[in-house]
């Protein structure tokens, strides 16, 4: 290269450095020197580095050319052209213009190493044309991005905190809300298993059973009542797992059953019923009754057992009751010759965990194995009580279940040597309370009762009371007969120790039907044991009746197909009126009969007085609290009592309380 040419080139480079220094003070320090065209050497970069040319025919050439034009820091006139220079728009592809605007030499365009650098080229060109320097522009964008992010975070935090800054409106504490009503479901009443003979020693859980005798009869009777429009609800007797059973009435369509109706179309009441009797089934059964108009229908069932021979000779009866979460049973015995078996039935769809408290004459009886007894859905479990509390003359049970509700019943039988001493079911009474009313107590003539008691110590009619708290209880006993209150021999006062049981003999009273009222200074559970027989040393029977619930708006009492049944009524505190209507075997309802109760007098009514072929009774009451029980006698010995069942449940009200 000639000396003049070298000097001119150095002068051009000096001019470029001056322009860079004036337009971008930091550019010379920030941007490295770019590669020069082939055959040229960039100052300070060592040996010459050839740059491949991009052919115009190459498909990538236009793109490479477009990006190369604005490459930052390149030694061409585009990067250094001042603002408003239009010469750059007149460039031809493949040519690189000299820094002074003159065309020095056609040289190939330089290829860019990567896309990001090409993108920055346009920014550099704008900076060279008088825009902000690159570093300031980048810093500004970063500052704006950070400020925007902070603003978004602040807005989000404000939205989250809005709930605490501006709390939503809520009703005042204790504000009254409307009552939400839930339609009633099927009513469920579970019947205990038939009386059965215990095999072997009978210790522990789930003993083996055998038929009572070849002459024994065990039947379940059931009935259901229609609504005022004459619609009979669907009703079925099923096993506890929902399998095999018998139908009383077909189930109505759910939409039709949910419709609330009044009287019949002609304005009269078209009520009628359906009766099913003589269902012979030894295992527990449950009566399912369909609700009508969102209210539970009236249905009832009972288990009846009778045998004239064998170790379990006697009469036994028990109502089919709704499962419960808490049951109180008083009066069991585990002395020699008496067998008491607790039957637990879970007819629900949930597993039940059952806890059983035992109370004896000395107080609470520890039984760790009874603290948690699991019963699967649709299953039953039997417990021999003598294995947990032996030699107790009076044993009281509190059965509490969590999860599925259960039915608790005790099958109790007595055998004195080879002579049957009676059999019966002990069923749950009313919950523990300061007052207990026990209707349906039948007592023998004092002379005859004395003879039976002389032959066997336990053949005595007596009241069993259990104190349900550590305070114990002192109770006053009133006995109400056909003429009103009768004086109790000995004064009728009984002291019960803490969480213990005690007995009061009911000897010396005239024969007849009675109602026993127990009034304590703390909550108690109570039941009465009755004995019936003819001669000492001969077979006799026993029956138990617990505390009863008061008569409500409507109850259905199913009568047995054997024996002689009587309805016993009493209103201990004041006057009351009980209305009784017979339900025939054909399902027809007979004329009602009103019975006035007053003066604490116990009234006995025979169903035969209401008509023939009576299969059930419909009861309702008004006035003071009144109570009822059905007493059944068969032959010279047999006796059993069926307490009055609960009234059906209507719509259930649920109060929803909103709180914050």
TrEMBL record:
Keywords: Membrane, Transmembrane, Transmembrane helix. Residues 1-14 have a biased composition (Basic and acidic residues). Residues 119-131 have a biased composition (Low complexity). It comes from the Bacteria. Residues 1-142 are annotated as: Disordered. The keyword Membrane applies. This is Secreted protein. It comes from Paeniglutamicibacter kerguelensis. The chain crosses the membrane at residues 143-166. It holds the Pfam family DUF5719. InterPro entries: DUF5719 (IPR043777). The keyword Membrane applies.
